[in-house]
Amino acid sequence: MSADLFSVRGKTAVVTGGSRGVGLMIARGLVEAGVDVVISSRKADACERAAAELSEVGRCTAIPADLATQAGAVALADAVRERGARLDLLVNNAGATWGEPLESYPDSAWDRVLDTNVRGVFQLTVAALDMLRAAASAEDPARVINVGSIDGLKAPMMESYAYSASKAAVHQLTRHLAKRLASEQITVNAIAPGPFESKMTAFMLENPDARAIVEQQLPLGRIGRPDDIVGTTLFLSSRAGSYLTGTVIPVDGGIVGCG
Questions:
Q1: 161 catalytic residue (yes or no)
Q2: pTM check: above 0.90
Q3: Residue span of the structural domain in which 101 resides
């Protein structure tokens, strides 16, 4: 086996929502693997703090952006473009959620969640296409990785209607973009995480009793660790994953596959 089969050293990447949770796990893993990473999030102070922390182990830059708007997506792509003409990897991770009972679920939740989770993914990918095309080759395609959720693969217990619908849309958008961009040597895949430590899951996982209930429902019996999501990202970003496109990979301890 070639020693560089899983290597991503020297590549460039953008990770949206990279200041916390799964996005920060992915960004840290890429930086430690030798990738020049731009992280973006809506809150500038959190973005700058995360980039400063990651810069202690590699190359990381913060570019704050609100990806719920097309102007924000274009502005982020323009700022990345100023750093260089090529982009090897785009990780569309930025997301929003909203939980509320069925009969009081507000229309504003749909706007906020779909604008960030679906439109934002599409608009940033389109805005960055010229840079992805510049990096793409038959031997080493440019990569887009969309972060979906197992809530887009199975009905969740929580009343997060817009979130689960948006993640199912992300999975289908991944397939559609993959079909369109395959001829240009740009692969598009999705990771569908299960329970990981994040702000979105803090209400469950920071309560020992609730955490124990969640763990009991996981076939592998534990919450996801950073290496679990980083390993899948490195696979999809490296030569090892260059022949995959249009896939949705659950990283969930067996919830979907063993359910």
A1: no
A2: yes
A3: 12-251
